[in-house]
Amino acid sequence: MKEHLTGMLLVISGPSGVGKGTLVKWLMSRDPSIVFSVSATTRAPREGEVNHRDYHFVTEEEYDRLLAEDAFLEHATVHAHRYGTLKSEVEERIAKGQNVLLDIDVQGALQVMEKAPDAVSVFILPPSFEELERRLRGRQTETEADIERRLANARAEVKLLPRYTYAIVNNDLDRACQTLEHIVLAEKQRTTRYLAALTEDE
Ligand code: ADP
Ligand code: 5GP
Q1: Whole-number Å distance between alpha carbons of 85 and 37
Q2: 2-37+98-197: what CATH class?
Q3: Angle, nearest 10°, between helix axes 173-188 and 20-30?
Q4: Ligand 2 nearest atom to the CA of residue 157, by list position
Q5: Where are the domains of the chain?
Q6: Which residues pair with 113 in a beta bridge?
Q7: Which residues line ligand 2 (CB under 6 A)?
Q8: Which residues, in sequence order, are bridge partners of residue 36?
Q9: Dihedral over Cα of 65, 69, 72, 76: its sign
Q10: Ligand 1 centroid to residue 66 C-alpha, Å
Q11: Strands 56-57 and 40-41
């Protein structure tokens, strides 16, 4: 059987500070079949963030131009900044059999689920809102106003949990990483990913 499978669209969401970035880095270090979709954003880079690796950092004008060109698979205003997934980061790669990971907010995830019902969606939950606040503050990357806004949004975001395929509580980090890896391993075995390979062999 040929090993040319259809790629997976893997959507990861969860409140800011819950540990998405940490889980995603770990997963990608373990699984080279996964490529990260680098989003465009109008937010300013944080210390240590690299343009075109973490985000495509764009001006408001550049973002407007991308919108006008219909370059986004989904886009949303999140915590007062604009973010969007570029079609160019996703579509060809899926067709080539790569697994593309999107770390996006709930508004964007719902748009993707609508357009790509076979996307695999995982919602990361904090053990508690108190712990979420501790992590967000511990990261020391946001202003006080930003932290308050992110915490307020978190309560609305978790209400959308039932729209996702899977949930993981990120309490013990090792356990959460392993659960995520198991989800990906199982999802890779869906029969639908093998259909292209079967047709090619005929
Ligand atoms: P997000 O990408 O969801 O905003 P990060 O990955 O930046 O979140 O994590 C926020 C903070 O929480 C970081 O300082 C990270 O090291 C820490 N963190 C992540 N997972 C855990 C965990 N399971 N237990 C304790 N701290 C964690
Ligand atoms: P941060 O500013 O902390 O990097 O991200 C803030 C939020 O924006 C997170 O919930 C993150 O998942 C989300 N986000 C990042 N990129 C995108 C994107 O392209 N589209 C959408 N809808 N959300 C995004």
Answers
A1: 7
A2: alpha beta
A3: 60
A4: 10
A5: 2-37+98-197
A6: none
A7: 16, 39, 43, 74, 76, 78-79, 83-85, 103-105, 107-108
A8: 101
A9: positive
A10: 31
A11: parallel
- Given a contact cutoff of 8 angstroms between Cβ atoms, the answer to whether 55 and 43 are in contact is yes
How many degrees, rounded to 5, is the angle at CA 46 between CA 78 and CA 14? 40
Task: Give the separation between CA 16 and CA 153, rounded to whole angstroms.
Answer: 9
Task: Annotate 119-187 with DSSP letters as a single string.
Answer: -EEEEEE-S-HHHHHHHHHHHT-S-HHHHHHHHHHHHHHHTTGGGSSEEEE-SSHHHHHHHHHHHHHHH
Report the alpha-carbon distance of residue 55 to residue 77 in Å, rounded.
Answer: 15
120-155 CB burial, b ≥16 within 10 A, e <16: bbbbbbbeeeeebbebbeeeeebeeebbebbbebbe
The CA 13 to ligand 2 mean position distance, Å, reads 8
CA dihedral defined by 43, 49, 50, 54, rounded to 10 degrees?
-70
Q: What are residue 79's DSSP bridge partners?
A: none
- pLDDT tens sequence for the chain (202 residues): 556 788 999 999 999 999 999 999 999 999 999 999 999 999 999 999 999 999 999 999 999 999 999 999 999 999 889 999 999 999 999 988 999 999 999 999 999 999 999 999 999 999 999 999 999 999 888 899 999 999 999 999 999 999 999 999 999 999 999 999 999 999 999 998 887 666 665 5
Cβ-contact 147, 137 below 8 angstroms: yes
